[in-house]
Design goal:
By secondary structure, this protein is of the alpha+beta class. Helix content is about 35%, strand content about 15%. The protein has one domain. The mean pLDDT is about 80.
Length: about 100
């Protein structure tokens, strides 16, 4: 089992290798990935970037965490385990100024 720090580094490397660039998300590697990783501390192997769209980014495989500019990080209730949702509730929503 990997640590969340190791998994975050892997996710960053994959994005760099893909060479995909979305102007609206230029800060993804520097702020959003470390911030999203906080929520995946209990399940680091599930941490990944599922989808990058113009309006949202979806993190996670089994547990899905959605980031939008207007709402910050929000778990997708349909895809998250009870343990993930509980961990999210313990952390709470990160203030937008920290992202």
């Amino acid at each position: 089992m990997s640590t969340i720090k190791q998994r975050s580094e892997t996710v960053l490397a994959q994005l760099e290798n893909e060479g995909e660039h979305h102007d609206i998300w230029w800060y993804l590697p520097y702020t959003l990935i470390p911030a999203a990783a906080v929520y995946f501390e209990q399940c680091p192997d599930d941490f990944c970037v599922q989808h990058i769209g113009e309006q949202a980014i979806v993190f996670g495989g089994t547990n899905r965490l959605i980031f939008t500019h207007s709402h910050g990080f929000t778990p997708d209730q349909r895809y998250c385990t009870k343990a993930f949702l509980h961990h999210y509730e313990q952390i709470g929503k990160l203030p937008m100024r920290t992202i």
